[in-house]
Every structure is written in C-alpha cells, then in structure tokens.
Design goal:
It contains 26 helices and 21 strands. Helix 13 crosses helix 14. Strands 12-11-10-9-8-7-20-21 form an 8-stranded mixed sheet. It has about 750 residues and is α/β, with parallel strands linked by helices.
Length: about 750
C-alpha cells in the first residue's frame, strides 16, 4: 500500500480522460463493473481502482457544463455576481445565471465605477454572445476551454442596463471577508508602491500578474521566471511560518495551533484565488500540519496525491489545466529527487556554505526545470534550458520580497507611515527584479522554441523517468534501456524521414487575413498577418518551430492585415517584406522601420510584379500604377491598393484578393494572366457586398471560396454559394484550415 494514493490518483485521472471520449456511459460502466467483479479476488482488492476509474468517469459526465447552442436571442437575463470587478479588472465581472438559463457569462462593463459586489443579484438588459476566440490547427481552442469552465458567452453593457435586485447572496465568507481583504490589499499596494513594482509585488504575493504591462509579462516568460508569480509552497510556507512563530511566542500548541495555522493557510489560498497551484500548496500544508497533533508520519508524495484527488473531486477539468500539470509535476519531482540530491551532496567533502547556498539551490532549480520541460514544450512550445540559472539569481530576491511584502501589509493595518517606510525597501527589491528579468529576457540563448511536443513524447519522457526511479530493479533497467534506445531511434528517423510539404495554411487570426505558403524545400511566404493583440501568428509560428520567413506580403496598410507582424518577437527574422506602398498610418510606419532596422529588405510591388524562386508561381495582378497614384494623392482609401496575387502550383490556382473591391478589374486581370480555373478564391474584403457580387463567382467558378475575419458575411455567401455548387469555408465559423498537396492532390486538414 506504499503507493496506494498514487495509484488512486492515476485511476481517477484515467476515468476523467475517458470521460472526454465518446464511449457510451452505461456501456462503459457495465464493462468496468463486470471486470471488477471478475478480478476482485485474484487481484486482492486492486479492482477497487477500477471502481475509482468508473466513479471518476460518471462524475465527470455529470459535471459537464450546460451549453446553449444559440444564446443570441436572449436580451434580458438575471444572475448573481460570483466574481466582482476589482483591482486590475474594474471593467469585468462574472455572472452565474438563474433559471431558465444555466452556466456563467462574463459581464464587460463600459463604466469602471459600476458598484457591483460579490453576491449581488442583478437583472441585465443585453445580448449574450457566444465566445468567438480564434480556432487554429495545433493551438488551444479557448472556446472549448471556456465551455468546460461552464461559461456560455459574454455580454457588454452600460450601467443603466443593470438593475440591482438584491444583495448578499452566495458564500458569506467570500463576500464579507475574502473580497474586502483583497480590495484593501490591492489599494494598499497601489498607494504605497504603485507602478510596475506594485503590480509585480501583487503577482509575487497573490499570483495576479494582470497589472503588469504585456511587455513585462513577455520578459518574465522569455527569461523562464514566470513561475515566481505563481502562488506555491514558498508563499504558503512564509504565511504559515509567520503564524507558527507568532503562536509559539503566545505558547499556543497542539490542536489549537493546527486549527489556526490551517485556517491561515486556507485563508491565504482564498485570497490568492482557488486555482490549482495555491490550492495544491494549501492542501499539502494542511495535511502536513495535521500530521503533528495526530503524530502520524508524513509521506510527501502521498500528501501531493491527496491534494490532487481533492482538486479533481472539486473540478475534474483541473486535470487538463496547464498550470495544474506544471505545478504537480514540479512538486513531485522536487519531493522525489531533492532528498537524493541532499544525500549525494552530504557524502561529499564540500564546504557547508557552498553546498547549502549554491550547489543545492542550483540542483533543486535544475530538477524543476528538467521535469517541467516536456509540458512547457507541449503547452507553450518553448523551453528555457538555463531557467535554473535565472531562478537561482532571482529566488533570493523573491525570498526577501515575500516576507517584507506580507509584513508591509500587516503594518498598513496599524500605521500607514511605518508601512510606507518598509514599502520603499520592497519597491527597490521589485525594481531590481524587473531589471534583472528584462536583462535575462534579452539573452536569446536562454530560450529554445523547437515547436510543439506531442503527448506521445511527453509520456515517453515521464515513463523513462519513472523507470529510472526504480533503477535497482532488473526489469526497470531493461525497460529503461529499451525505451531510451527505441525512443531515440524513432525520434532521429522521424526527423530524417519527415520532409517539408507543399501546403497552404489558412489561419483564423480573429480579425483580418493571414495565410502561410510552404514548399518542399521548407521556404515560407506569409500573406498578411491579421490584427495585432491576438498573438495567433506568434503562437502558430512557435508551435511549428518557425523562427524566420523568406517573404512576408502585406497586401495593404490596414491594421487587420499587418498588425500581427508587430506581435512577433524582436528576434524573429523576415528576409523580404513586400508591400504596395510605404505610405500609411503611424503604426504601419513603425512596422516598416522596425523590420528595416532588423535587416529586412522592403520591396514595393504592383501589377505585373512576380515572386520567383519558390515552389509556387506567384504574380501580382493589382493594383495598377493609376490606382496607386490616386492613393498617394489622398484621393482613395487603402482597400483599392490591395495587392491581388495569383498563385499557381501544378494545375491548381489560388487567387488571394486582400480587401480589393473591384470585381470587374479583378476578373479582367485574371483572364489576362491565366486561363486555368480557380481552385480557391479568397473572398474579397471579408465577404463584403461590394466585393462579392454573383457575377464574380459565375465568371471565376472557383471550387472553394474562403472567408477570413467575418461571420456571417454581408454578401450572404453562406446561403448563396452552396446553391451555386461552390464550397464555402469561413475561418470564423470553421476555424483555420491546412491545404496539403498529397501526391500532387490537395487535401484539406481538418477534413471538410
């Protein structure tokens, strides 16, 4: 029974995973019950783990959130505020709906001074809209993520559309103790410190990093230090340690000390928010404190598994949360390998100061870095191999900032002047942390982005790790060697045999256009980049391991066509940037200046221009010289100067139209350049009425029409094109698509 809790956790996790499949509920339940009865005696009780798997399976099915397929007709609804606007979120709240509706909605407020509080029962006049996050191959679909969390949509309203019906609903403790404490903490830190330093302190103390500018958050991510703003055992340990010290001074021991310390730890977790990392730390701390009065031996791994079981019981979908996976994996690795490292160092004749203050912290940080690397590569497509070095540099400062920050908040309850003196010290530490992080983020060698690691390789890594832990057993040695050798052979040969393909990736950037062309030599051409702020382009390139582009084409200087290039990191390289003009708004000028300074060749092109040397034949049909002259004189807008590209591969042709809304000129230019039928037509200007008359489709007769950036379309293409026998793909409705050429025949992925 040494690892009973671990086996129980694995059984429960397996049941939750199986619940995500389409296995019939009662069919699966019957099979498990029969197997359990058959194996009950020969397995000596191990069939109980089958019962746990079945229980988790049924429980997860029962917790599946209610989802409304079409909530747009709902214009008036009521609900209870379960997350109030406060701190860095003064314009958003979460509402738990009341019957006949179920689920939660995010309430976006046009006035920060709404006066809403946790537990308010309100009536809202507004339209609930489903989430429409971008959906792209290989990337997380946040629409499904929100659905699993029980959200059915969002609504944006003005204060006069909200009617307060009553107050003080829901959990009394959260409403009367936790939220007032959070408001006090946020206001105090903002008053005493403020700025980025204050926002960083809130992140260190309570895990809320939303107050930091995006650029600063990116620095923490690139340097591998984002984990210091995740509430963990260190934070809870500081709080509990302070409480135990105070209770020792007051000579409070036994069960009273356990109750007070546990309540303090759980109250801190409530302040930080019931997310996996702080919840895990709080539950493990409570279990550790309980072992003292009951005088029972504490097994750290069993305590971790206990915390995992409790969290999965509260919310099964925690299993799929990236933060939960990273937190539990890092903790399990530290609990397993840190004692071994201590024993190994203790056997060596090493000075105590070197062992305790340098070697041991480095080894512990290295264990956490290696153990979480596969998950980081899978979820975030990046890995910081020297993150252990960064952590060793900043952890001493974090260890100093945490107790001083808590002490500052305690002093603020008694005397603001005294607290402000300590606040200056905390400000200096926070500022030093910010400067070190920004410096480390500029070291490109700290960051490796090889692309997304599949679950197969993640499981392979952890399977080898488990076998290594059982190295004393002959069977473990044999399986480890076979698994390591076999995995390396498959990895090497898969890399050798996997060759670049000719394919076109049509992304869903949310707003705007974005298409990536690749050939068999691995050359890449990007047509437009979508709007900035969504990070779709950045995340997709990271997931594919793309660090440079041979060519980027910006069809015209509209933000929803070039903005995504601004989101790319400074280290990203573009060899050639093709544009119709260098004249545009200030953000467009910023884009051109940035890439020109980084060594990108800026090329102007127009009708008659060609792009050669790639696996495609690419020629630009529009705009002509006259249209560009009108634009430069300020007589027309940006849309008429959109670059229109005809792309040909073998017998297939693709017409990319940008935002061009001149169908007659488009048809004439195409007939002058090619007589081949159009296989795929990108709908001009996101399905606009002016750019998509019936005559255009009757003349070109494309097999596929793709719309990016808008659904439904003003031209009603959803109903018109199917009647004409033309297949329509709308990335806002269907998500991003990849067109691969398999044996020279185009194949869609996902299948249409």
């Amino acid at each position: 029974m040494k690892y009973a809790s671990l086996r129980a956790l694995i059984a429960i996790a397996l049941g939750i995973i199986l619940a995500q499949t389409k296995i019939p509920v009662w069919w699966f339940a019957g099979i498990i019950v029969i197997i359990g009865l058959i194996l009950a005696k020969p397995t000596r009780g191990f069939s109980l783990y089958l019962f746990l798997t079945l229980s988790a399976f049924l429980f997860t099915h029962s917790r599946n959130p209610w989802v409304t397929k079409d909530v747009t007709p709902i214009n008036t609804f009521s609900g209870t505020v379960v997350s109030e606007p406060y701190g860095y979120h003064p314009r958003s709240a979460v509402l738990e709906l009341t019957p006949p509706l179920e689920g939660k909605v995010i309430l976006f407020l046009k006035d920060a001074n709404s006066g809403l509080r946790l537990g308010d029962f309100i009536k809202v006049k507004g339209r609930i809209r489903p989430f429409d996050f971008p959906k792209n191959p290989g990337l997380v679909d946040y629409n499904q993520v929100m659905q699993k969390k029980g959200f059915i949509g969002r609504v944006t309203v003005r204060p006069n559309k909200i009617t307060l019906l009553s107050r003080n609903h829901g959990n009394w403790f959260a409403r009367s103790v936790v939220m007032p404490s959070r408001r006090f903490i946020f206001k105090t830190i903002e008053k005493l410190i403020g700025g980025d330093e204050g926002a960083l302190l809130i992140g260190l103390l309570f895990g809320d990093k939303s107050g930091l500018p995006k650029k600063v958050q990116t620095s923490f991510t690139d340097s591998g230090l984002l984990h210091i703003m995740a509430v963990s055992g260190l934070n809870v340990g500081v709080v509990v340690g302070a409480l135990i010290l105070l209770l020792s001074v007051l000579r409070i021991r036994g069960w009273a000390r356990f109750v007070i310390s546990s309540l303090g730890a759980l109250f801190y977790v409530a302040l930080a928010g019931w997310t996996p990392a702080p919840a895990r730390a709080g539950l493990m701390t409570t279990a550790a404190l309980l072992s003292i009065p009951i005088q029972r031996r504490l097994t750290p791994l069993a305590t971790l598994c206990f915390a995992g079981i409790i969290l999965l019981f509260i919310e099964p979908n925690t299993l799929f949360d990236a933060g939960a996976q990273l937190s539990f994996t890092a903790t399990a690795a530290l609990l397993t390998f840190s004692p071994k490292a201590w024993v190994l160092l203790s056997r060596r004749k090493i000075p105590n100061w070197l062992r305790n203050y340098l070697l041991l912290p480095v080894i512990i940080s290295l264990i956490a870095t290696i153990s979480t690397a596969p998950l980081l590569l899978h979820h975030f497509f990046r890995f910081q191999p020297l993150a252990f070095f960064s952590s060793v540099v900043v952890i001493p400062l974090v260890n100093l900032a945490l107790p001083l920050g808590f002490l500052m908040l305690c002093l603020a309850l008694l005397n603001t002047t005294t607290a402000s003196i300590l606040a200056e010290t905390v400000r200096i530490i926070s500022s030093l942390l910010l400067n070190i992080t920004n410096w480390l983020a500029r070291l490109d060698f700290l960051l490796i982005e090889p692309g997304k690691l599949s679950w197969v390789w993640v499981f392979w890594f952890y399977a080898l790790l488990l076998l290594f832990l059982n190295w004393k057993n002959h069977w473990a040695k044999t399986l480890f060697r076979l698994g390591l050798a076999g995995g390396l052979v498959v990895f090497v040969w898969s890399g050798i045999l996997t060759q670049p393909q000719t394919k076109i990736t049509i992304l869903d950037p949310g707003k705007g256009d974005a298409l990536l062309l690749e050939d068999t030599l691995g050359r890449k051409i990007l047509f437009d980049a979508g709007i900035d702020g969504t990070n779709v382009l950045t995340d997709f390139f990271r997931s594919e391991g793309i660090k440079r582009l041979d060519v980027a084409v910006v069809t015209h200087p509209d933000r929803d066509h070039y903005g995504g290039l601004l989101d790319l990191p400074e280290r990203f390289r573009i060899d050639r940037l093709i544009v119709p003009t260098t004249q545009g708004d200030s953000l467009y000028q910023k884009l051109l200046n940035r890439y020109q300074l980084s060594g990108t060749e800026i090329v102007l092109t127009k009708k008659g221009g060609e792009l050669q040397g790639f696996g495609y034949k690419i020629q630009f049909l529009l705009p002509d010289e006259t249209t560009l002259w009108f634009y430069h004189q300020g007589l027309i807008s940006t849309n008429p100067i959109s670059l229109v590209a005809l792309i040909e591969h073998k017998q297939f042709s693709f017409l990319l139209t940008g935002d061009c809304e001149m169908p007659e000129a488009l048809t004439i230019a195409l007939k002058q350049s090619s007589t081949a039928p159009v296989f795929l037509l990108k709908s001009p200007h996101h399905g606009s009425r002016k750019g998509n008359p019936l005559e255009l489709f009757e003349s070109l007769k494309p097999k596929y029409v793709i719309v990016l950036g808008r659904y439904p379309t003003p031209a009603r293409l959803e109903s018109i094109l199917p009647e004409m026998g033309i297949k329509l793909i709308n990335t806002r409705r269907d998500g991003g698509r990849i067109l691969r050429f398999m044996k020279e025949n185009p194949v869609w992925y996902p299948n249409l």
